[in-house]
Amino acid sequence: MSQIEQLSSAKGKPMILHEGYIYTVERTTTTKSIFRCKNRDCKARCHTNSSMDAFVSQPTPHCHAPQPDRVPAIQLKNEIKARAATTDESTSTIIHSVLRTYPLSAAGQLPKNESLMLMIRRQRTTETVDADGRLPEKLRKTYRDEDFILHEDKKLIIFTTKTNLSILKQNKHWFADGTFKVCPDDYYQLFTLHAMMANAIIPLVYGLLIGKSAEDYNLFFKKVLEQDNFQPESIMTDFETGTIKSVKDKLPNILHKGTF
Questions:
Q1: How many Cα atoms are found within 13 Å in the side-chain-facing hemisphere of 241?
Q2: Which CATH architecture has domain 5-66?
Q3: Are strands 255-258 and 234-237 parallel, antiparallel or unpaired?
């Protein structure tokens, strides 16, 4: 049987390395694991034992050459994650240490320093859900011990407090914004409602949405508006089609302003 090196994908799923080819797990059974080539244009596959440390059937032919230069970057990410999870070393210490052994021949595959730092932060702040798929208790309360979860299901999570909703109610002019860059993998965007407080616009309600359709925004606004008798006079949003339709549906009698 041929030697196998075990790796993990960015999402923690099993990968194996053999003779310069990288394979990702396709499915597992009680007795073996089936892997396919990481190159999705290639149909090569192989079967390993359940421990993923030996082949039970050799890899089928690939349609491309090996890509050994991609391996060091994956190994580097694996080592960074392991050290972030098991040590108290600083972010800079971990990065500098693992880069010492990184081969110059694979410099073109080296992730940016910012990406490596973010990887460490995410590894150290990962929270698991409970048996019912709910967020852990430490994320359900604010530092002032206020309830922070307004709504939670697979389509939408809304974070806010009674204090925030009270401030929102007092304000007649609302601002809404969505970002797609800072969002957990299971959701599509972070959508926020803002209002004025002490001469500053502050976020008061945070929503994790699975999409950007009018239905997604409708559910968000519905859950917020049913908490109190809100009577805003205006709302400012971007020109996202789904947002515009939802505001007209859920807040039909207020002034809607658009902004880039």
A1: 2
A2: Single Sheet (2.20)
A3: parallel
Q: Give the other-Cβ count within 10 Å of 76's Cβ.
A: 22
Supply the angle between the helices 113-125 and 71-86 in degrees, to the nearest 10: 40
Distance CA 69, CA 54 (A): 23
Q: For residue range 125-173, list pLDDT tens digits in order.
A: 655 566 566 888 878 999 889 999 999 998 999 999 999 999 999 999 9
CATH architecture of 137-258: 2-Layer Sandwich (3.30)
Q: Where are the domains of the chain?
A: 5-66, 69-125, 137-258
For residue 252, pLDDT beyond 70: yes
Contacts of 49 by beta carbon, 8 Å cutoff, 6+ apart:
31, 32, 33, 55, 56
